[in-house]
Design brief:
InterPro entries: Tcm_partner. This protein is α/β, with parallel strands linked by helices. It contains 13 helices and ten strands. The strands form two sheets. A seven-stranded mixed β-sheet has the order 3-2-1-4-5-7-6, with helices on both faces. The longest helix has 34 residues. The protein is globular.
Length: 386
């Protein structure tokens, strides 16, 4: 359980770590059903500004703890799995702290590398067995040329979480040669040379944010031939503006399913602390306490809260849209990945929506004959309502 008190002044890290702490215990058991090795790669490990005392508020600390727990669980089930981590840190002081910190996790075979990530990426890639699954985290403080990490992004059996520094991109994406590393990989899509810069220049606000984010998502997706590249928006603490985007790459619908669960959890965390912060600001401004206010209540108008509610509504509409395009119907295993790819909604949420649509006779699910079944099964056919 992450303690919000560890994140005072760096609340964005709480959002990111909530995602990681939700993703890993959900995904690792699914992976080790078929892979004998789970490998975690963190190219910018830190530790940075850790306040927990045991590195529980760092990405590598969360990852290694969850890997240790998963290994113990699998051992109880009679399965032997290998947990491996490759951690890179360029700051010498942080590297020294890192090498000491990983000793807390002896069940994970951990390799630490001192220096810049670009220097070690190829070596790390060569050490990971082809049959192993790898989860690669690229979380720099600046904007590296992501193409230098292709050797880790491109292999099969890989998922990636990349911190796309949106603020930098928003500032420089319209100006040629202002930030060559960003320029290099954002320009990796096949279109008219430089046309994307002109498009960005004409956009403002939410439209510009969406266009830049989509450009980054599609460039990364193409880099490794990924099926899915959704993004989680992490906002500035004191403003309703994006600070960075966590772009997730996966080739499998189950990876997308796990991402959306962790995505919505992270957004709820962000909405909660920003709502509390806003409530505290009002209290200080007025000099009065609201005796009936819930100190943990989410403001429904907060940006992350709106993203959750809008995503749920969009998911419901997406189901109806897909069925309108296929009046002969679609199997559920085709519907839910398409909805989760397009909308900020979880698998369970969209399953509940389908049940409600069925009860309202807006759709038909002939195979769904038992009231004990709460959500559709993959082989169920979903048909438009008659």
């Amino acid at each position: 359980m992450l303690n919000p008190g560890w994140y005072e002044g760096r609340e964005q890290a709480l959002v990111k770590h909530t995602f990681l702490d939700t993703y890993m215990p959900a995904q690792i058991p699914k992976i080790v059903r078929w892979a004998g090795e789970f490998t975690y790669v963190d190219l910018f490990s830190g530790p940075w500004q850790s306040k927990s005392g045991d590195y529980s508020d760092t990405s590598f600390g969360i990852a290694l703890r969850r890997m240790t727990e998963a290994k113990a669980t699998q051992a109880k089930l009679g399965r032997k799995v290998r947990m491996v981590a490759h951690l890179v840190e360029k700051d010498t002081h942080n590297f020294a702290a890192l090498t000491e910190a990983v000793k807390r996790f002896p069940e994970v075979e951990t390799f630490c590398y001192s220096g810049v990530a670009e220097q070690h990426a190829a070596t790390i890639a060569s050490l990971i067995p082809k049959e192993a699954f790898r989860f690669v985290v690229i979380d720099p403080k600046g904007v590296p040329d992501v193409r230098t990490f292709k050797c880790l992004i491109q292999p099969d059996k890989t998922e990636v979480l990349l911190n796309f520094m949106f603020q930098f991109a928003n500032r420089f994406a319209s100006s040629q040669d202002r930030m060559p590393p960003l320029e290099g990989w954002l320009g990796g899509l096949s279109d008219e040379e430089g046309g994307w810069r002109r498009d960005f220049l004409m956009l403002k606000g939410a439209e510009r944010e969406a266009a830049i984010t989509d450009r980054a998502r599609q460039a990364l997706r193409k880099m490794g031939n990924y099926a899915y590249a959704p993004a989680l928006t992490v906002d500035e603490t004191a403003a309703e503006r994006p600070l960075y985007k966590l772009i997730f790459l996966s080739r499998h619908p189950i990876g997308l399913l796990v991402f959306r669960d962790a995505h919505v959890k992270a957004l709820e965390t962000q909405a909660t602390y920003k709502s509390v912060r806003r409530q505290e600001a009002r209290r200080q401004q007025s000099g009065m306490d609201d005796l009936f206010a819930d100190p943990t209540a989410i403001n429904p108008g907060e940006r992350s809260a709106l993203e959750i509610s809008d995503g749920l509504n969009a998911g419901r509409e997406k189901v109806l849209e897909l069925l309108a395009q296929k009046p002969e119907g679609l199997q559920w295993k085709t519907v839910w990945p398409a909805v989760l790819d397009a909308c900020v909604v979880t698998y369970n949420q969209i399953g509940d929506c389908v049940r409600e649509l069925r009860e309202a006779a807006q759709i038909e699910v002939p195979d769904w004959t038992s009231s004990a079944i709460k959500r559709p099964k993959d082989d169920y056919w979903i048909l438009p309502g008659r």
